[in-house]
Amino acid sequence: MQADTDTRSLRLLVVEDEAIIAMLVEDALTMAGHLVVGVAESASEALAIAARETIDLALCDVRLAENDSGLTVARELSARGVPCLYVSGNCPSAADHPLIIGCVGKPFATAALSRAVEAAYRIATGARDVEVPKSMQVFARE
Amino acid sequence: MSEVERERPPTYPVDDAAATLDLSRRYLALAAEAADRLLAATDPARMVDELFALVRAELRLDVFFNYRHDGGLLRLEAYAGLTEQQAHDGAELRLGEAVCGCAALERRRIHAKGVQRSDSPQLAFVRSIGLDCYACTPLLDGERLLGTLGFGRRDSPCFTAEELQLLHTLCHYVALAKLRLRHEEELRCNIAERDRLLAELNHRVRNNLQMAVGVVRNELRGVEPVPPALTTVAERLELIALAHRPLYQADGASLAVDAVEILHGAVELTTGGDGRVEAAERVMIPIEQAVAFSLLVHALLDRRDGAGARVAVARGAATLEARITVAAEPAAAPPLDRLASSLLRQLNASLYEEAGAIHLRFPLAHAG
């Protein structure tokens, strides 16, 4: 399976502290034609990877290892211009930065994950009327 | 300690009945006002401050001490009329120490009179702060000691019986109010603890279902040809996980989930996002039927080219009906495997073909 025709292969960062779920996410996105440039299980790892890699979109769990918060990670990454999509069992209802696009609720359908990522990237790059999977919530944007 | 006496019943001078009646009315009004405030109080220390402010002028009070019983000690929780040093000196009492320690230990009210003339060591502290009379009441919940509340005066050697009666009544109200606040705090803590536990369970269940999917999908990684059985297992695990997802958002009153949301998962898996679920409104389904329903729809779509599949779902009075059509050809019910047959039986469902569509109908559990 290749990435959607109107979305190039994306460079993605996965911020997830459960190794098996991180693998599942990585495999689903790789199979869809994207490149996972790093998997981080804590805020410091995520920011370190973001400092050395070009990232098109970060997928952030909300609860991370070492009592870190994915909300903080998303806030830091978005402030550096990296669009973020939460993947969490406890989706926030809003975000305080326009580059934090939305949330995919856990458990998620792996087939829908790549479409959610591609939709989030299109929204982040200014596309309008983007169709999103049912399992994805898009935060209100001003 | 002759100055420290047990409380006696109030006595009224017979030659001043009108004044006594007036006093009683004023005291009654004070007690009513105090009860009113204590019923609405939300802070245990501040409520005693406010009570003292309410009664100090009428009763010519100079100080109060409110001790909280904590681990066998009395700790000063609120006070008035003391310097910081005096409050520091009396910040902690052992049971049996000083007037309030004795009142707490013996679970009895104590009225210390003529304090300045006394050399009793138990009165040393109240004497040192200039009091001449002091009344301390243990705050009790049955036999359980909550603390003590004491009031003192510098300019007279004793309280009258009426004054003592009012002070004891107020202390009784304070004990009840403190008990209420303590119960409310315990209740809040219990609810917060339960909420934390529930949130953790919720998180763990979601993650574990997702991890189960991950474990199976990991076995599929790089395997050629892909074992169809393992693919089916992964998909069914995903469906089970997805069918439970709406439950986490359900209100506690009903364990029902939205069948439309569940169907989106089944259609997503079999059509790769090319299918559609149609419903005029939310169709709630008991959680115990949700997984079976989801797996059954998946089984009905799984053995065909699911592209363009549509599942229309509607609720009757006590039944749920799903109408399945596919774009490629008129839909016909496929031969059912063992799992699908079992699910059909579990749901007590009927399955038939009509006008190029598959119809699935089953009674909703608990629908009456």
Q: Helices and strands of chain A: which structural class?
A: alpha/beta
Report the order of strands and helices of chain A: EHEHEHEEHE
- Give a quick account of the main beta sheet of chain A: strands, pairing sense, barrel closure: 6 strands, mixed
Rg of chain B (C-alpha, Å) = 37 Å
Mean pLDDT of chain A: 89
Outline of chain B, from the CA principal axes?
A: elongated
Q: Strand order of the main beta sheet of chain A, please?
A: 2-1-3-4-5-6
Number of helices of chain B: 10
Structural class of chain B: alpha+beta
Helix content of chain B: 40-55%
Q: What is the approximate shape of chain A? A: globular
Draw up the topology in text.
The complex is a heterodimer of chains A (142) and B (368).
Chain A: E1 11-15, H1 19-31, E2 35-40, H2 43-52, E3 57-60, H3 70-79, E4 84-88, E5 100-105, H4 110-124, E6 136-138
Parallel strand pairs in A: 1-2, 1-3, 3-4, 4-5
Antiparallel strand pairs in A: 5-6
Helix pairs in contact in A: 1-4, 2-3
Chain B: E1 4-5, H1 17-40, H2 44-59, E2 63-70, E3 73-80, H3 84-89, E4 92-94, H4 98-106, E5 110-112, H5 124-128, E6 133-141, E7 144-153, H6 161-220, H7 228-249, E8 256-258, H8 259-271, E9 276-278, E10 284-286, H9 287-302, E11 310-315, E12 319-325, H10 338-347, E13 350-354, E14 357-363
Parallel strand pairs in B: 9-11
Antiparallel strand pairs in B: 1-5, 2-3, 2-7, 3-4, 5-6, 6-7, 8-10, 11-12, 12-14, 13-14
Helix pairs in contact in B: 1-2, 1-6, 2-6, 6-7, 7-8, 7-9, 8-9, 9-10
Plain-language structure description:
- The complex is a heterodimer of chains A (142) and B (368).
- By secondary structure, chain A is of the alpha/beta class.
- Chain A contains 4 helices and 6 strands, in the order βαβαβαββαβ.
- Chain A has helices spanning 19-31, 43-52, 70-79, 110-124; strands spanning 11-15, 35-40, 57-60, 84-88, 100-105, 136-138.
- Chain A has a 6-stranded mixed sheet with strand order 2-1-3-4-5-6, sandwiched between helices.
- In chain A, helix 1 links the parallel strand 1 (11-15) and strand 2 (35-40).
- Chain B has 368 residues and is of the alpha+beta class.
- Chain B contains 10 helices and 14 strands.
- In chain B, a hairpin with a 2-residue loop joins strand 2 and strand 3.
- Chain B is elongated and about 105 Å long.
- The termini of chain B are far apart.
- The A-B interface holds A 18, 20-21, 23-24, 27-28, 63, 89-90, 105-112, 115, 133-135 and B 199, 202-203, 206-207, 209-211, 213-215, 217-218, 221, 238, 241-242, 244-245, 248, 261, 264-265, 268-269, 272-273.
